[in-house]
């Protein structure tokens, strides 16, 4: 893998990791009832995942344009990180909605 592709893979892993971490922190904030913090963290997760997606899209577009992209373990690893971050963000969004619903039901019971 050449230096340019190595840098892309590492950037993708970094942005995806930031997104996944923010999603996990958002779930914890939602569990603690801090919905504003959870929403802020989910926005950070989305922004980081968007950056990762931009790298992925540019990479695929370059390959479709004829640029050689070596299929390496690092490339596969970077895609795995991207998918994991995407799934984690989806779960965190669902978790936030569920925690809000639980809070609403608790308030109705009081």
TrEMBL record:
Its cofactor is Mg(2+). Pfam families: PTS_IIA (PF02255). Mg(2+) binds at residue 80. The active site is at 77 (tele-phosphohistidine intermediate). GO terms for biological process: phosphoenolpyruvate-dependent sugar phosphotransferase system. One of its GO terms (molecular function) is metal ion binding. Keywords: Magnesium, Metal-binding, Phosphotransferase system, Sugar transport, Transferase, Transport. This is PTS lactose/cellobiose transporter subunit IIA. It comes from Lactobacillus porci.
